[in-house]
Amino acid sequence: MHETWPPQPEHTNPSDRRDASSVPSGNDAPPPPPQFQRSFQPHSEPEASANHQRSPQRFGWPALLTSVALAAVLGGGAGGLTAHYLDDGSPAASSEIRDSPQLNRTDNVTPTTEAAAVASPSVVTLAVGGDQAEGSGSGVILDEQGHILTNTHVVTLGGQTAAAGVLVQTHDGEVYEAEVVGLDPMSDLAVVKIDAEGLQPIEMGNSQDMNVGDQAVAIGAPLGLSGTVTEGIISNLDRTISVASSAVPEEQDTPQEENPFEFRLPDNTEPPAAQGQIHLNVIQSDAAINPGNSGGALVDGAGRLIGVNVAIATRTEGNVGLGFAIPVEYAQRVAQELIENGEASHGVLGVTIVPTGQGSLSSGARVVEVVEDGPAAGTRLQSDDVITAVDGQPVTDPGSLSATVREYPGGSEVELTVLRDGEEFHETVTLGTMN
């Protein structure tokens, strides 16, 4: 029981794909990440803590990093990064970050400097290795127990492996083996865990308090350069994108939507044969996002997490000023369920829907059919109704309706705003659970 609509042409760009071995590292071939004795089982109980005690492994970091082309946000070009310091009129650093090793002076700092100093210790770099592929990405420390939030496509190398070895380098340079706690392909979020002391969890912000034009700072390891900070503004708060996913449930009839840009996840190699698409509601910013930023932090001016970087829009390789992050509220919900249950729940409405307009312009999602015995079957919804909002959040097209419904856990009660023959009404629906 799911939302479906007619498939549309898939956009691919073979010239954007390349083998990871062609990316120069500037060093000898790195050793492969550790091979784990067991693959991830979503419902398995954690082993005794003694079994997970691992002392930090020290590697030369250039040797640790592998090709960044496989497990990072796609956009191969690297731009220059310029630090702007204000000589006059800038405030002094706050007392809690005055001893930060990132600050060479504390008498005057920019808001970006302070945000980076606050959040950077909570952002880590991941090196991921499978049987036939390897790559890198970023992650965010959630708690002192060592749970780290990242992207599913980072941990699975774009869907190429379900049992990758993962190494994590923290801000202080220590390297740890990580275990996979849970993967959620429908949100492209994942949680891994390390055994480490003195971790600094990131402070949670609120994406719903953000305005278009507010400052946004991205922190991660683009192009394998750990601890990199890029700065911009929030350029849109209500964007829905469609990205490739290698682990979409079989019953999910995912459309291939026509877009002026390609919304791309990190995989530079040919995608697995069984590949669909997922829809995500995201925060759009113009902070530079490049390969390796996936799973890293998008923070506000106070260094609080407002999103998890996931994708860019591109017509060519490289950053074009359009980066996307999963809002922190959704990320927190999924992360908590992964930690507690090993999997996350997603709502399903049970209707077949199509756009209301032609081409790329649409206003709402038109109901073609209410699935028999589905969650919406007992409601007033019928064919030709147009769903325009979910709990007051506007719906512009089928993709945005699908993305919004998936953000709720199964069993949630939502209020739909529906337009029928020019008249608006509201209908309450208890969502089903996606299998």
From TrEMBL:
GO molecular function term, any single one: serine-type endopeptidase activity
UniProt keyword annotations, A-Z: Hydrolase, Protease
GO biological process: proteolysis
The protein's name: Putative serine protease PepD
SMART domains: PDZ
PDZ domain sequence ranges: 338-422
Organism encoding this protein: Enteractinococcus coprophilus
Gene3D superfamilies: 2.30.42.10, Trypsin-like serine proteases
Any Pfam family: Trypsin_2
Residues covered by region (Disordered): 1-55
Protein family membership: Belongs to the peptidase S1C family.
